[in-house]
Amino acid sequence: MTRGPTLPAHRLPYLPEQTRTPTCADLLDGFNTAPVEEAHTALLTCLRSLRWARRLADHRPYPDLDSLLAAADEAAYDLAPADLSEALAGESLPDLPEDTYSAAYTALSAAHAAYEARFGHAFVIYLGDTVPEETLDRILEGIRSRLTNDREEERVLTAEELRRLAKQRLGQLLEGAPNRTTSHNGAARGK
After folding, report:
1. Angle at Cα 154 formed by Cα 126 and Cα 83, nearest 5°?
2. Of 24-28, 41-45, 71-75, 166-170, the least confident
3. Which of 29, 77, 134, 183 has the most CB atoms around its CB within 10 Å?
4. Do 115 and 148 touch, CB atoms closer than 8 A?
5. What DSSP character marks residue 13?
6. Does pTM top 0.85 for this prediction?
7. What is the CATH number of the domain that holds 153?
8. What CA–CA distance (Å, rounded) separates 97 from 185?
9. Number of domains in the chain
């Protein structure tokens, strides 16, 4: 039996390699093995305290995210007043949802100016799972209620809010999730 002509070899079209989304473990491994300066830079996007960033970077490697977050908490509790001031200098007014009306910006700016005049630093607040539509109200409510605090009471509350923000930002950095913090330092929002 005679065979017909041989068909050309079948070639599949170019298929790009499938890229795997890095897991939290991959990102943690990258953090654990990164050069010290890279680790400091990444940590400073979470909290602008050199002491906090150095402490976390110097205690690497961390076996898991929970261990790193616990160390971040502990380091934040140990911030001296100068460290707290340094971290607060890196904070700014939160971004509001895009459809926020201009009067809201005016109200927020006025409330923030009163807060800064009273306490000498930016207002920070951890909003956790606050939905974007409620962000403005929650921030204004927070500023107004905290304006009645004395300086020491507000220093303690501000340190707690910064600690919670830093922990959230660090978790989001290593989970690869978009960062939706309400007070930010420019690099931490995941834009």
Report:
1. 80
2. 24-28
3. 183
4. no
5. P
6. no
7. 1.10.3330.10
8. 17
9. 1
